[in-house]
């Protein structure tokens, strides 16, 4: 298959390499750039205060990990949670074990037993700028003292949607890999109206039921929900589709 990979680098390149090794021909065109967040320098101090750390994305875990490595600091011996397996794996790569839910959404994370009786606990949430407030709001309702740290920020560079659609069609694009709701919205906004029907008919692969629902509401007709946003899960979904 010839899927479009729109997630930011370097994750986009790593995913594309994995897909090529399995015989696919991905087109890599990141719609998003990630940069260090304004709160990143506060990370060491906040980690000293925290009893629980939650990484809401792989990007959050990686930016935090890289900053600690660059400044010669380490993760404290406390409890760690991640929204999905990809973010948990990023923490594990740093030597930090983390719990994650089978349902890779905020709702799945909040259902974990370790995040229920947390009244009075100091919770640090590692995330990007913006995003959903459900985790922070729910944990505060449960009595936790919650601090949110923007360890990275999103930047959406200007793109020529007309030229890109022509390029993608010429290259034989036949599917889409979209790993976040923000990327889905960016892709939809980028594509000119006269290409919209073509786009909506392409098989779309997403990592969670929430994004699948968002895609259905936007008009996509062929949606597959992978087991998560990690490379193996996305590849498995593509492989299954190729065999059908």
UniProtKB/TrEMBL annotation:
Its EC number is 4.2.1.75. Gene3D superfamilies: 3.40.50.10090. Residues 13-235 form the Tetrapyrrole biosynthesis uroporphyrinogen III synthase domain. It is an enzyme of class 4 (lyase). InterPro entries: 4pyrrol_syn_uPrphyn_synt_sf, 4pyrrol_synth_uPrphyn_synth, UROS/Hem4. The keyword Hydrolase does not apply. It holds the Pfam family HEM4. It comes from the Bacteria. Keywords: Lyase, Porphyrin biosynthesis. It catalyses: hydroxymethylbilane = uroporphyrinogen III + H2O. Pathway: Porphyrin-containing compound metabolism; protoporphyrin-IX biosynthesis; coproporphyrinogen-III from 5-aminolevulinate: step 3/4. PANTHER family: UROPORPHYRINOGEN-III SYNTHASE, CHLOROPLASTIC. Belongs to the uroporphyrinogen-III synthase family. Catalyzes cyclization of the linear tetrapyrrole, hydroxymethylbilane, to the macrocyclic uroporphyrinogen III. This is Uroporphyrinogen-III synthase. It comes from Aeromonas schubertii.
């Amino acid at each position: 298959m010839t899927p479009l990979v729109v997630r930011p680098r370097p994750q986009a390149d790593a995913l594309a390499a994995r897909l090529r090794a399995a015989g696919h021909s991905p087109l890599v065109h990141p719609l998003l750039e990630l940069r260090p967040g304004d709160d990143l320098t506060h990370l060491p101090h906040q980690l000293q205060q925290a009893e629980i750390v939650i990484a809401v994305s792989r990007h959050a875990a990686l930016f935090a990990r890289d900053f600690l490595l660059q400044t010669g600091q380490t993760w404290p011996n406390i409890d760690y949670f991640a929204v999905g397996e990809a973010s948990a794996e990023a923490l594990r790569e740093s030597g930090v074990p983390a719990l994650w839910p089978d349902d890779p959404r905020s709702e799945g994370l909040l259902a974990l037993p370790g995040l229920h009786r947390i009244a009075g606990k100091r919770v640090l949430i590692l995330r990007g700028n913006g995003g959903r407030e459900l985790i922070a709001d729910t944990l505060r309702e449960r009595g936790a003292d919650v601090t949110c740290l923007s360890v990275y920020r999103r930047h959406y560079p200007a793109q020529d949607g007309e030229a890109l659609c022509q390029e993608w069609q010429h290259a034989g694009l036949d599917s889409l890999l979209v790993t976040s709701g923000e990327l889905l919205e960016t892709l939809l906004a980028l594509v000119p109206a006269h290409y919209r029907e073509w786009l909506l008919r392409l098989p779309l692969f997403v990592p969670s039921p929430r994004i699948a629902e968002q895609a259905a509401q936007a008009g996509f007709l062929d949606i597959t929900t992978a087991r998560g946003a990690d490379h193996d899960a996305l590849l498995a979904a593509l492989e299954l589709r190729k065999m059908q």
